[in-house]
């Protein structure tokens, strides 16, 4: 088996969420952060022949990078990685014990979704860049007096620098939905976003079959 560039990007992204990964038999990849406040799911083009556990996903990706064109062979207790045109070059990578690897057993079923909006890639990158430049740990989606905006700020300091962008949301009511910027571990791309007043959000990538469920901060408010 060869991994596509898209699957490799998914694995690199998942490694930012959790270094552990259990790859189930089939084509669905699922991960969860150690704090259980981020769950991500991707459907990839490969069909994995068996369940394997990887303790250090970054190490696994680094092992793949040794080869120009790696080919994977799934054995009972380990994975053999070979160079496509030089199969005598190979690396044996042993699976981890699944009991020491953290993995979600299922995705999240979203409760009622009060607010939806589209977040295009440029705006997402702008918000992340601005948060890094001014050292803002929080992002808030807010609506008051009929106007909606995304704002990066420090919610604990009203006089701290902030950066905002206007966005278009549907749904009634006024709200302030707080995210930790560090939890927005999203692959590049544009997203359809749905938010529930139960303090959970759903980000679905519009160009790749990957989605995220991200918990909101407890200060979040919603009123009709």
How would you sum up this structure, described in words?
Strand 14 and strand 15 form a beta hairpin. This protein has 224 residues and is an alpha+beta fold. The strands form four sheets. Strands 2-3-16-15-14-8-12 form a seven-stranded antiparallel sheet. A five-stranded antiparallel sheet has the order 11-10-9-13-17. A three-stranded antiparallel sheet has the order 5-6-7, covered by helices on one side. The chain is built from three helices and 17 strands. Helix content is 16%, strand content 43%. The relative contact order is 0.16. The longest helix has 14 residues, at 121-134.
Record the SSE blueprint:
Blueprint: H1 5-17, E1 21-23, E2 26-32, E3 38-48, E4 52-54, H2 57-65, E5 70-74, E6 78-83, E7 86-94, E8 115-119, H3 121-134, E9 138-144, E10 147-153, E11 163-166, E12 169-170, E13 174-180, E14 191-196, E15 200-205, E16 210-215, E17 221-223
Antiparallel strand pairs: 1-4, 2-3, 3-16, 5-6, 6-7, 8-12, 8-14, 9-10, 9-13, 10-11, 13-17, 14-15, 15-16
DSSP helical segment count: 3
Give the termini distance in whole angstroms: 52 Å
Major beta sheet, strand line-up: 2-3-16-15-14-8-12
**Order of helix and strand elements from N to C terminus:** HEEEEHEEEEHEEEEEEEEE
Question: Total strand count, please?
Answer: 17
Bulk shape: elongated
Cα Rg: 20 Å
The main pleated sheet reads as:
7 strands, antiparallel
Uncertain stretches of 5 or more adjacent residues = none
Helix content: 10-25%
């Amino acid at each position: 088996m060869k991994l596509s560039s898209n699957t490799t990007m998914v694995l690199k992204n998942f490694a930012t969420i959790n270094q552990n990964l259990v790859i189930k038999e089939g084509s669905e990849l699922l991960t969860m952060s150690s704090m259980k406040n981020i769950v991500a799911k991707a459907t990839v083009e490969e069909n994995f022949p068996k369940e394997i556990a990887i303790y250090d996903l970054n190490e696994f990706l680094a092992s793949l990078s040794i080869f120009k064109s790696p080919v994977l062979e799934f054995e009972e207790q380990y994975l053999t990685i070979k160079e496509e045109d030089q199969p005598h070059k190979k690396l044996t990578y042993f699976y981890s014990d699944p009991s020491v690897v953290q993995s979600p057993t299922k995705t999240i079923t979203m409760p009622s979704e009060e607010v939806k909006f589209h977040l295009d890639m440029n705006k997402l990158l702008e918000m992340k860049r601005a948060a890094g430049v001014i050292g803002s740990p929080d992002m808030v989606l807010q609506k008051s007096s009929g106007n909606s905006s995304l704002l990066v700020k420090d919610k604990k300091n009203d006089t701290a620098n902030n950066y905002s962008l206007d966005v278009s949301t549907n749904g009634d009511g006024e709200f302030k939905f707080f995210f930790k910027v560090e939890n927005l571990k999203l692959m590049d791309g544009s997203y359809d976003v749905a938010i529930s007043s139960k303090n959970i959000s759903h980000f679905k990538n519009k160009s790749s079959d990957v989605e995220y469920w991200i918990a909101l901060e407890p200060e979040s408010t919603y009123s009709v």
